[in-house]
Amino acid sequence: MMQSRLPGPPGIFPDLPDAMVDLNTVAGVDLVKAQWRYHDAEIVDTDFRSVGDDLEPSGPPNRTYDVSPHAESIDYDDSQWELVDATDLSGRRGNGKVSFNWYRINITIPEKIASFDPTGSTIVFEVVVDDYAELWVDGDMPRVVGQAGGTVVAGFNSPNRIIVGRDVKPGQKFQLAVFGINAPISVSPENYIWLRTAKLDFYGTERSTPSVHVPMELARTKPGIDAIFDSDARLEQIAAGFVFTEGPVWVNAGYLLFSSPNTNTIYRWSTDGSVNVFRSNSGYSGFDIGEYRQPGSNGLTLDSQGNLTICQHGNRRIIKVEPKNVVSVVADQYEGKRFNSPNDLVYKSDGSLYFTDPPFGLPNRYDDSRKELPYSGVFRVKDGVVTLLVDDMSGPNGIAFSPDEKYLYVGNWDMNNKVLMRYPVLDDGTLDQGHVLCDMTEDTSENAIDGMKVDQEGNIYATGPGGLWILSPEGEVYGVLKGPELPHNVAWGDADGRTLYLTARTGVYRIRAKIPGIRP
Q1: pLDDT tens, position by position, for the chain (520 residues)?
Q2: Within 13 Å and on the Cβ side, how many CA atoms surround 391?
Q3: Cα separations (Å) of 328 from 260, 266, 310, 353, 475?
Q4: How far is CA 299 from CA 257, 296, 366, 400, 512, in A?
């Protein structure tokens, strides 16, 4: 029976901690050798510049507003601030209406918390400010597009939860700063700012990641699999509660993006376990969206500058999203005809983009009246020019290069022809005659061939009938990984590139491998 600790897109460590320090109590504050300090903040006039053509502050000088003081820095001197007793954090502060303030506290990890030894544990700071809060840990405030909660505003009187530290040691010190905001700002409320609750949750070394191990079966068909996965490798569910997940890509800033084609959304999963909407309307914004089963984005990748490149089902095109949300169309038609619904994609080292174009994003797929191309192609975009490379596959889907880029692999989503093709890449970037590298048609398990990736030694990881197929560069089947639900795409992630992330129907999973993967 699969555990169910992750009933939906999870927060940060949603279950009971191993130990807790209540910072609203004198005993809790004394245990971590702390002292709350407080100061009002105000909005002040300041010089700035208007937005320029580069979307940066490079235009004419202007006047705008700033917050004073800026007390987020770890070395900010708060020694002259008001001292606040832990039992008085519920005292109403600020000036009412639209107002702001700061709470700061320095904590030291104790030797013991009751009988719990905090050595090696992960600490989560949770605070509820009436009304909004922003959090800083040691002068740092990580923030990305779509983030809700954690370091930034979580909502009206909602808990902000953020990881303070991992693998902590007794005696280790942290500086926490809480920026309080009276809200809703638009109605100038008739109240004041106060700190409802503040606590530190400690999670022991065995619970240092907000995930849950799930049952898995790794059919070790050939000895080569032992060079890929340890005998005790375990599959983890890191997020759950979705309709259908696809197109994962790891961003070096430390998070995973993945598509939800059915709900027209790109999600961002962070290593603290939080899941936020990264991009809504990720694949379609048409009035007739109700006709579509999968209008959203599918395949995602990054170009050499780290810009997100998106296959949009409903819009039937590929776009690139650059900094400041500058969106450009990479390709949307071939010889004057719109694509079917670009599905998956991969960049070559020369900057050219290769992608597959089955009709799976169209409401009626192959029989859809909106279909303009008579085939499902594999295309290349180079210097703005679109080239048709292959047009004889019924459902080209997952796509990947070999490490040396001498071969292009394409999987076919066709229940009657579950083949993984290998095409030699010619000097001009086009493809030579391909051949079947692996035929999975005889496996009657659910699914044809979907997304795939390659490791640095050329082994192929293809989502196929019944699970994740691991193949040698020559197409020899090393084994099949089967989890609680069928995977549909994969991506390599983490700092060392040895974690394989799998997007499945309702959840996202990961497993550690011995060999690093090829990442965009």
Answers
A1: 233 334 444 467 767 889 999 999 999 999 999 999 999 999 999 999 999 998 899 999 999 999 999 999 999 999 999 999 999 999 999 999 999 999 999 999 999 999 999 999 999 999 999 999 999 999 999 877 777 788 889 888 899 999 999 899 999 999 999 999 999 999 999 999 999 999 999 999 877 667 788 999 998 778 889 999 998 999 999 998 899 999 999 999 899 999 999 999 999 998 888 888 899 999 998 989 999 999 999 999 999 999 999 999 999 999 999 988 889 999 999 999 999 999 999 999 999 999 999 999 999 999 999 999 999 999 999 999 999 999 999 999 999 999 999 999 999 999 999 999 999 999 999 999 999 999 999 999 999 999 999 999 999 999 999 999 999 999 999 999 999 999 999 999 999 999 999 999 899 999 999 999 999 9
A2: 8
A3: 21, 18, 11, 14, 37
A4: 10, 10, 20, 12, 22
pTM exceeding 0.70: yes
Locate tokens 């965009």: which residue? 520
CA dihedral 275, 279, 280, 285 (to 10 degrees): -160
| Cα→Cα distances 159→125, 141, 150, 176, 178, Å | 10, 16, 9, 15, 12
Contact between 63 and 112 (Cβ < 8 Å): no
Structure tokens, 259:
């598509």
Q: Cα separation of 258 and 113, whole Å?
A: 39
- DSSP 3-state helix, strand, coil percentages of the chain (rounded to 5)? 5, 45, 50
Beta bridge partners, 431, equal 425
